[in-house]
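To: structure subgroup
Subject: Chain for Friday's discussion

All,

I'm putting the inputs and outputs inline so they're searchable in the archive.
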Amino acid sequence: MRLRDFDLLNEIGLTTYERKALITLMVQGVADAETICREGEVPTSKIYRAMEKLCDLGLVEIQPTRPKLYSALSSDEVVNRLIEVSQGKAERFATQALALKTTLAALPQEIPGRKTFVDLALGVESHVKRHLIYLTTARSRILSYLEHGDLTAIDEISAAGFPILRRVARNARERNIDHRMVFGFAYRTAPHLVAFLRTYRAQLEHVTGVRYSGELGHPFHVIDNEVVILSLDHPFIPEGRFASLLVRDKELAQKLADGFETLWTKAMHDLREISFQPARSDSSVPT
């Protein structure tokens, strides 16, 4: 038998020698300390303390003879007792954890303030694979304001074989995510926006609302009211999107969510409201 086959015994706090002693006794049935030491390779200096602990846990029995003998229980009895011990430890831990919660809450805070996590991603690939990937794990809501740099980044990463929008859509459908989008555009970027909407129409079907607005210059996403992605573009950078910031901060997320709601109420419902759009109906553009 291999000792690692009995690693589950670690869960109730049995040491290596205690596990060896228990296994050896179950093989022997009845044995004295000398036999357990010899057959189980347990040092004589460890055997009596090990057997006392096993007896206290109810995993073995002592026969008060001279020399003292130890008797194994059946495998069913041992397993049932292990379950009882494990449940007892879990209940005690739960009770103690509640007390610990009160103690931790009472600790003085030298610098009270917001708990913020910030991560910087450089380049389009890092922006998508490190930050936009959070959109694929949203639990309830996504608010997205996108501009030309976002469309270019998604085009580039999709062409490289990373279908980020498809992954976002799959998660959104599975979890019934509320995902609203506002697309910011200028007249020079509007044709790209129309082409983008046509290309990714199937991957945007999960979106619960789409509107259109003039460019603000500050694209962002708010995920589950706690994670914010701030996209950074610059006209001197050929690819436009040179970095993004991921910020885990509920206060900032709430401010941007409020700003999104204001933008949402003012934004256009349909691209056909702008003069460059052909008058004919085109069902490939979402409204």
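Points worth raising on Friday:
The radius of gyration is 32 Å.
The domain at 117-273 is CATH 3.30.870.10 (Endonuclease; Chain A).

D.
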